[in-house]
Amino acid sequence: MVGQAFLPASNQTGDRQECLPHQQRRPERTGINHIFDHIVVGQGIAGTTLAWCLRRRGLRVLVVDRNRRDGASHVAAGLVTPVTGKRLAKSWRWGELFPAARDFYRSVERDTGTSLFHERPSLRLFASEAERSEYLRRREMLGELVRDATNIPGCFAAPFGGLEMPHAARLDVPAYLDASREQFRAAGGFLAADLDPTRDVELRADGVRLPRLGVEARGLVFCRGFSVSDPWFGRVRFNAAKGEILTVRIPGLREERVVHRGVWLAPVGRELYRCGATYAWDDLNNTPTAAGRAEIVSRLRELLRVPFEVLDHSAAVRPVVDAGYPVLGRHPDRPQLAYFNGLGSKGSLLAPFFAEQLAAHLCGERDVEPALDVRRFFAP
Predict the structure, then answer these.
(1) Whole-number pLDDT of residue 82
(2) Is 214 inside a domain boundary?
(3) Quick one: DSSP state of residue 40?
(4) Do 310 and 297 form a contact (C-beta atoms < 8 A)?
(5) Residue 183: which domain range?
(6) What is the pLDDT of residues 30-76, one digit of tens each?
(7) Do you find a cis peptide bond into 277, omega within 30 degrees of 0?
């Protein structure tokens, strides 16, 4: 149930004043018990981060989520790396996105009293002489983002050496989602419910109502990832990819860096590591497969010279959009509805910057970048 500490909603008028609180008003229809500025549907990385950005503007936000731990965010590794891919490309807009992510997660750590964002170097081992040669060719261009790896433990197979990324980080995604949910719940801003947009969302000229849940708001934002359709944003085209991840125990290993070579290996506790991930563009569901497990185990055996034990196996579908970039903004014909999705496998890095952009847009402070605006999917 929704908590009892309810604050006044604000009056959204389509300009900057929509972010200014006003006196609580009496609902016009029976059955509506609570009024909010915005309802955020989905409490993955996208929805959680957007809710924080809206709340920091003094807005009354309700997060509605199924409260199930099988979505892409709940199995995400939270890796943040400045250099990616076989060609050692600099991560898209790294100079903007990383400072925004670091500052945002540090602020959430202060608000929740929880350690969430771990900045430490990441180790990438070369899989071939060709990969090593590519690094040597690009090393000067990448500058301070990379350096030669000089401390490679003997338990890793590294015949071609490697590089280190000193400015990498990892978000503890489950801890981030859990700590945020408790903050939202304590403020009366979280509701566990499986929302059916067709049945539960009632559009009105001045906002939306969810009669079954007894709430209304000036705006509603869908942040529900892949495989969830609704009557308004069905034109967004996905190129989603299923990913599988293992949790393993590696006795005696004390490596604190994330290690990459064919797979990534991320420390999560004493001798415990998460390892992944696969990519598959069919069979798009959250069911782990024997083939996915076998692929990760095979690659991990190529990386490690020591034994390991598989403890857990999970899968989820990454919400990758055809265009390859995040998608955000208001519906072109229903401005009380908005959308934030398509963070893909880099959600921990992308979410803070673009959630802030969407929050500013919803408050009339700025436009959404045209290349990312959901309205492009509605163009004739």
Answers:
(1) 98
(2) yes
(3) E
(4) yes
(5) 16-74+174-237+324-378
(6) 467 899 999 999 999 999 999 999 999 999 999 999 988 777 887 88
(7) yes
